[in-house]
């Protein structure tokens, strides 16, 4: 069963984008991320996965085969959880069996799982009442760009993969996310700076839809789980971890962070300089 053409083309484009044509072979990793929650919600979360383009290609093939078997165009976690749309006829047994199959594909093909959350309370305490909501997206995504690019470097406890000197990361974010334009600005500025391009191992940046990118559907599951889990922590609710979160967390190397007031204050000067420079 062939991949959707946009996703297939993206996997190959990330391997050797135009900016690198004629240079030594570039090995690409793909980082796919989705947000959960609106920028004015009490909690805002971005979550997603990292893997090689080869693994993503196989993942996408197998994921789309499952969805075709279930007569789904794409998988959306919110509708699945609420039994809406194409999931209305799925009983509890079918729901559990099919979610298990999707989680198994994720566990089989990804090499790292990443999640960051930022509460409205923490954000306003450090950045003030007049700060733009879009800054929350920037602060969360900026953290992810750093952590993902440093997965194999000294001092990082998430050594999930050994990146070579020629390996770079192609980023794909979900098109419907609020504030996605701030990340586009950030990426362009960092990519145009040769030093930052190397530090962050930047290769490409794409804004796409879930239907065209199966890895974004996987990221949607993680982002949804983060959105459901973090509010419990803020409220100090001693409730069991949700099943999908537990499986992903136990079986995939991961970095999950809640941006605390202390973390935001420690990074304030640097991040505020970025915000001003990028005119966010």
Description:
The chain has 280 residues and is of the alpha/beta class. The protein contains eleven helices and six strands. It has helices spanning 5-15, 53-69, 77-82, 92-109, 120-127, 134-149, 180-191, 194-199, 214-234, 243-251, 261-278; strands at residues 27-36, 43-52, 112-119, 167-174, 202-208, 254-258. A six-stranded mixed beta sheet has the order 5-4-1-2-3-6, with helices on both faces. A hairpin with a 6-residue loop joins strand 1 (27-36) and strand 2. The termini are far apart. The model is unreliable at 1-5 and 15-25 (pLDDT under 50).
| Spatial gap, N to C terminus | 42 Å
**What Rg is obtained from the alpha carbons, in whole angstroms?**
18 Å
Secondary-structure-derived class: alpha/beta
Physical arrangement of strands within the biggest beta sheet: 5-4-1-2-3-6
Helices and strands in order, then pairings?
Layout: H1 5-15, E1 27-36, E2 43-52, H2 53-69, H3 77-82, H4 92-109, E3 112-119, H5 120-127, H6 134-149, E4 167-174, H7 180-191, H8 194-199, E5 202-208, H9 214-234, H10 243-251, E6 254-258, H11 261-278
Parallel strand pairs: 1-4, 3-6, 4-5
Antiparallel strand pairs: 1-2, 2-3
Short note summarizing the structure:
The protein is an alpha/beta fold and 280 residues long. It has eleven helices and six strands.
Please supply descriptive tags for the structure shown above.
disordered N terminus, single chain, 280 residues, alpha/beta
């Amino acid at each position: 069963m062939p991949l959707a053409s946009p996703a297939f083309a993206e996997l190959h484009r990330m391997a050797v984008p135009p900016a690198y044509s004629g240079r030594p072979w570039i090995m690409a990793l793909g980082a796919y991320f989705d947000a959960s929650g609106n920028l004015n919600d009490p909690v805002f979360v971005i979550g997603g996965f990292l893997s090689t383009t080869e693994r993503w290609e196989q993942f996408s093939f197998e994921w789309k085969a499952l969805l075709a078997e279930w007569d789904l165009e794409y998988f959306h976690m919110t509708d699945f959880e609420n039994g809406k749309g194409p999931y209305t006829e799925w009983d509890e047994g079918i729901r559990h069996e099919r979610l298990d199959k999707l989680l198994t594909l994720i566990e089989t093909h990804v090499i790292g799982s990443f999640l960051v959350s930022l509460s409205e309370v923490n954000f306003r305490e450090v950045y003030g009442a007049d700060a733009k909501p879009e800054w929350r997206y920037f602060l969360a995504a900026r953290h992810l760009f750093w952590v993902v690019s440093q997965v194999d470097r000294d001092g990082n406890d998430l050594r999930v993969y050994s990146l070579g000197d020629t390996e770079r990361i192609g980023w794909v974010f979900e098109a419907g996310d609020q504030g996605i334009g701030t990340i586009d600005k950030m990426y362009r500025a960092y990519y145009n700076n040769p030093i930052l391009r190397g530090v962050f191992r930047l290769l490409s940046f794409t804004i796409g839809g879930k239907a065209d990118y199966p890895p974004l559907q996987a990221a949607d599951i993680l982002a949804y789980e983060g959105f459901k889990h973090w509010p419990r922590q803020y409220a100090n609710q001693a409730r069991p971890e949700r099943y999908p979160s537990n499986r992903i967390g136990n079986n995939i190397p991961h970095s999950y962070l809640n941006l605390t007031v202390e973390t935001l204050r420690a990074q304030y000067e640097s991040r505020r300089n970025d915000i001003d420079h990028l005119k966010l």
